[in-house]
């Protein structure tokens, strides 16, 4: 959900932070805002569910090994680029 109240997060910001939320790597204020947004946005909630299942599958199959920090940063950047690009393309239609 975009627009509306200035404090309201837009969907791209929520989706970009889903992994931080799932890994409990965000502060409580951010966690509360993301959770509140997902409660009122079925699209973000569905995406969260997919990401949560993917995280569980990766954890189960990879035995809890951690990716190198450089790889983690590159993946995070690429996910953010994809979300922004997808959002721009969707807005142009």
Give an account of the 3D structure:
The chain is mostly helical and 93 residues long. The chain has one domain (11-92). The chain has helices spanning 11-16, 18-22, 28-40, 42-62, 69-92. The protein is globular, with a radius of gyration of 14 Å. Residues 11-44 form the Putative zinc-finger domain. This is Putative zinc-finger domain-containing protein.
Question: Could you provide a short overview of the structure?
Answer:
This protein is mostly helical and 93 residues long.
The protein's oligomeric status is single chain
Q: Approximately how much helix is present in the residues?
A: over 70%
Q: pLDDT below 50 for ≥5 consecutive residues: which ranges?
A: 1-7
H/I helix tally: 5
> Radius of gyration, Cα only, in angstroms?
14 Å
Net shape: globular
Q: How many structural domains does the protein architecture include?
A: 1
Q: Proportion of β residues?
A: under 5%
**Biggest β-sheet description:** none
pLDDT average, as an integer?
79
Domain Putative zinc-finger: 11-44
InterPro entries: Anit_sigma_mycothiol_RsrA (IPR024020), Znf_put (IPR027383)
Protein name: Putative zinc-finger domain-containing protein
Pfam family, one: zf-HC2
Topology:
Elements: H1 11-16, H2 18-22, H3 28-40, H4 42-62, H5 69-92
Helix pairs in contact: 3-4
Question: What would the keywords be for this entry?
Answer:
mainly alpha, globular, disordered N terminus, Znf_put, Anit_sigma_mycothiol_RsrA, Putative zinc-finger domain-containing protein
